[in-house]
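Sharing in case it's useful to others searching the archive later.

Someone asked me privately for the predicted structure of L,D-transpeptidase family protein, so I'm posting the question and my answer publicly. Question first, with the sequence:
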Amino acid sequence: MRPAVAVVLAAASLLTLGALPAAEPELPERLADTGGGSQLITAVAADTDATTGTLTWWDLRAGRWTRAGSAPARFGAGGLVEGTAREQGTSTTPTGLYDLPFAFGVEAPPAGTRYTYLPVGESSWWCEDNASRSYNRWTDPRPADCRAAESERLAAFPTQYAHALVVGFNYDRPVRGRGAGIFLHVNGRAATAGCVSVPNDAMREVLRWADPARAPHIAIGTTGGPTAITGY
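And my answer, the predicted structure tokens:
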């Protein structure tokens, strides 16, 4: 090929490349809020009727969000619903942006876990009794005003609660009737009762990755509509 022709073709190629649309920003960069930290977990379903989707964990480094890992996720058997409109007992996963107060598990924490990690014993409960002063709280042992029939004995779920992170939904100032015991935990047999779940190896990887000093949050939502994850 003659040099002049080569120069013309090269210039044309550059023009063509320049005309290509810019790459879409990574998902965290499209969120209205990421919680202010440098770690983020996103849990995304196709729509509010879905019971499956994708969990991805991200790092913010040098001003850019980068993907640290990803896994298939499960949501509530009742689908997803805006967190402020959720009702207890509906098996729906609340959408929104939440902090991650602490971790717990029936099994020992994975090596490298930096989160406060509470070991689950036979007397460890999550109180879900709306009438209790311990509503939406870990209790060990279960207090007298927290009815067992309205709560979860955590050791009764050794598979799901082998490892878990508490999702800060309705946690700081609990609203009675909105819901309690929303966690990121290990998969059971099917959809959850409102939590987000992932395979055991993914849950262990998340715990090794998560650093409370970097203020990780979880954003739960759908790809579009009023509960779109980009709205949080």
